[in-house]
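Feature request, filed as a ticket because there's no other form

It would be nice if the structure record came with a short human-readable summary line next to the tokens. Right now we just get the raw output. Example of a typical job, pasted below so the devs can see what we mean:
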Amino acid sequence: MPDDPHFIKVSYGQIDLSPKSKPRKSRRDEVVKWLQFLRSALLNLIVVVSLLALVGVTVKELFRRPVIIEEIGLPEALSKRGLTGVVTAHRLWDAMVEVQDGSSTIKPRTSLITSARQLNVVEPGTGLSLQSLTQVLRALFGLTQTRISGEIICAAEDCATENLQLRLRVFSGAGTKIVSAGVVGETPIPDYFLKSALAVLRVVDPYVVASYLYEDEATRPDAIALAEEMLRDRHPQRAWAANLLANRESDRGNDDAAIEWYRKSIAMAETAGPKHWALPWYNWGTSLGNLGRHEEAIAKYRRATELDPEDASPWYNWGTSLGNLGRHEEAIAKYRRATELDPEDAFPWNNWGNSLGGLGRHEEAIAKYRRATELDPEDAAPWNGWGNSLGDIGRHEEAIGKYRRATELDPEYAVPWHNWAVTLSQFAATTPLPDCARLRSLWQSYLDAAGDHAPGWAPARFARQTADCPAPD
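Raw output as currently delivered:
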């Protein structure tokens, strides 16, 4: 076949059928590869965690919706004096917080923040801003946020302090309102900012203004007028306004009228909020207690504790009504719960002592009175109760010391004066003649201190009980 011209000889060379081995990597290369993998995974994890954190903070910020006080615009003349719009906004914020602090309401506060103090996180990987993201989401979901802006204007060319006026705009879901406290004039600057804060809060949170004004007898009529205006306008806070009008009637001693307002407040809360509101039920019980209708009061306090079991006040007042009905064991259980919820409140400790005394457990009662005086040493009531328990176990001179302290703290409190005189009479019945000097001294001290507060029978009893004593030297 080699001579055949059509024959082709193909040579493949030597064939190696053994498997080829992979080149071996060094341990160093393997470590480097793992470190690169871990670095990449860590960076990815940081980005994911950052995004999740930003989303979490954004959601929280989205629903928190504080009232934003933006930087206040200033005329050039004031800027040249070193004033800034940021500081002016902070002064307004300070005044608004002062009003909130000065009001006695337990209504949740409106959150206030200046734009300069806003949290504005920027995610480094994406450039996303917390505030820009929340603003977009609020616009998308129709969630309005109240913002306050404004400027100081000059009423005269010299821009003197007395000619300045802070004009503010409140942007909210209800539209835009312009408010101002007028020209500064002779008003001290802190008071002017306070007036401006009240003007803004009348728009943003009117009930807190009414509550603040109610604290001062001079401005109380303004508080009542504002509360009545809130009712006429069917303001969302109208249930609070009705409760304030009820408190006004109770403060006047018109508890029947107060009860009608508390009933209205509860009805308003069912439609306008706040939901599950315990306060008017508690206040209704207090007015019933003032009228001596303790069984009815207990039903209201029970309802208040169902709505807000963590508030100590209804438990305490529930105990007081039980005590007034002579149901001391039940009362003690309520006082115990009140002290568990608010151990720093002296009143339930004092009344706990009263119920223990009513059960004849005077040593236990003394411990409660002692605790009450430790918490509030300026309250005369527990000193008087302490004296009662001491007197009931025959420790008359110690009792007199407690009554004396009670009368020093509150000379107009008639009960300890009376109890002091009664204790002296009891002390006289057990005092032998050699102690006449002590007895005469105590009675005379009492009569001198009591003055017009002494019971009508006290001088005659003093004379009778010391009649057998030797005449003083």
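Something like this underneath would help us a lot:
The chain has a mean pLDDT of 86.
The first helix runs from residue 27 to 64.
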